Amino acid sequence: MNESALRRALLVIAILGLAIGIGAWRTGLGPLEASTIWTVATLPVVAALAISILRDFWIGRFGVDAIALVSMSAALLLGQPLAAVVVAIMYAGGTVLEDFARGRAERNLKALTDRSPRVAHRTSTLGTQTIPVEDVAVGDELLVRAGELLPVDGILIDASATLDESAVSGEPLPERRCAGDVLRSGTVNAGEPFSMRASALAEQSTYAAIVRMVAAAQTAKSPFIRMADRFALFLLPATLLVSGVAWYISGDPIRALAVLVVATPCPLILAAPVAFIGGVSRAARAGILMKGSAALEALAQVRTAIFDKTGTLTIGGAELIEIEVAPGGDANHLLQLLASLEQASHHVLADSIIRAARGRQLMLSRPRDVREHRGSGLKGRVENMAITAGSQALVLAAKPLPIWAKNGEERYRDEPVLRVFAALDGRLAGVFTFGDALRVDAHDALGKLRSAGIARMIMLTGDDRIAAKRISALLDLDALVADATPADKVATVEAEKALAPTMMVGDGINDAPALAAATVGVAMGARGATASSEAADVIVLTDRLQPVADAVRIARRTRTIALQSIIAGLALSGLAMIAAAMGQITPVAGALLQEGIDVAVILNALRTLGDGHLLRA
């Protein structure tokens, strides 16, 4: 019989004993028979609790469950078996309620495990073969059918795919992926069948990592919970002192018993673990992985946030910033022609250009007669028009820059951008500017972090100061540190951490030392930067900055609820102890009152599973 089943059995025995004893007493069998039944129903709970306490003591732990053991034993010795069996029901019921609360909080983990990929469809010259997901090797070509889970991480081979990534990233709407995009295990094919190439083994893929980290989070204790455990140890001598004083002053041992009965510190034992498990589970639903409740508690206390620039505050690639077109030109048509031509190019900008065109729902044509000039650009024909795209020297040769294009050239003169000139039938038709663009949600995310209590925000980057200032000028930041080496980043984080609890947010391998040095390291893990994810305490799975603000809000709300439950529970228990010491509460009434307090604090702790008004703000 497992421990959970034993707890339920003890509760059933105690409840049946109470009911049968009351029945015997009411039918006139006499108080002796009823007392015997209540005593017999209490003894299994006493024995199980004594064994549990001895087992904990043997491994160096001493819990406040001893108060419950003392109160039941004292009730039996003082001839109060009814009070003893009610305390037994209270204690056993509290443990069963804890199991229920933990089970409710861990439901997300079970849901994650239950939907783990089990099989994959491997394609080869021999056809398609269904194999266990554990047998997938890196480089295997896999077929993912409509509605199926992606078995491992991989690269999309087909032109496009539609994926439901809600289980991994928390994104509610399907995402469109293009050839060459990175795909993550655990997402669902929400469109037509497609082919992908495995880039990781099953146990090393995204979804397996999610399950492992959430499972670890369920068992890890935060400093807050350990502090509560230590504080609880003072309750036993304090309770014995209060009950002893009550007995000495009144001369009535039943008053001492009543104090013991209402002193069981279930709020302290149960509230913090249940609240923190709920918070970790809630974060997992939003695509935020917290490596244990210690990470969640530390995140709840941060006051300073440090951000890497490239890939964190910015998109981290060469994205289309601006299109300048000749008078009378059409930007979308010119982009369509350029992207059609770039389909034949291997240049680093080709993917960005094609992605920008597809983002505007532009239909691409097949290019013809394409000739690539290494390092300069390419020429070809699209829709019966001759198009040249690349550097100014290639496109214009010795011709002067038109007046309409001079403003942009001057504006971007000292900026870290790439400029692509495009000519149609020998005439300059437009200039495309590419650079590292600010994330679209960066303003909102930083604003929500401010409202969540982050007082100081810093950009910390290895990029040159000109590039860093261009981005920082767009944001509400308190400081900028540029030209930083990995060692400089660690030194900056250590200096800020000495002043206030500090969160470092980054995504690259070079951010790993700084993430490890911070009070809390937050990795933008959507792109699979293994080193930064390993060093971080919190991993954001979606490629957005907004979940960083959500993570701080979830952490603070969780810690607040845990603290509320503990303070309210202990305050109510303390008032009940005073009333019992004054003779206002009998042992039986005290046991019932304490059970009500337990239920109230656990239900309050379970609020961490919901969104709360803070997350909707």
Quick structural gist:
It comes from Mesorhizobium erdmanii. This protein is α+β, with helices and mostly antiparallel strands.
What does this structure look like?
By secondary structure, the chain is an alpha+beta fold. Among the domains are: 119-214, Calcium-transporting ATPase, cytoplasmic transduction domain A; 289-314 and 439-553, HAD superfamily/HAD-like (Rossmann fold), CATH 3.40.50; 315-437, Calcium-transporting ATPase, cytoplasmic domain N (3-Layer(aba) Sandwich), CATH 3.40.1110.10. The chain has a seven-stranded mixed beta sheet with strand order 10-22-21-20-11-18-19, sandwiched between helices. Strand 21, helix 22 and strand 22 (538-540) form a beta-alpha-beta unit. Helix 11 packs antiparallel against helix 23 (546-581), helix 18 packs parallel to helix 23 and helix 23 (546-581) packs antiparallel against helix 24. The longest helix has 36 residues, at 546-581. It starts with a helix and ends with a helix. 47% of the residues are buried. Mean pLDDT is 82; it is low at 613-617.
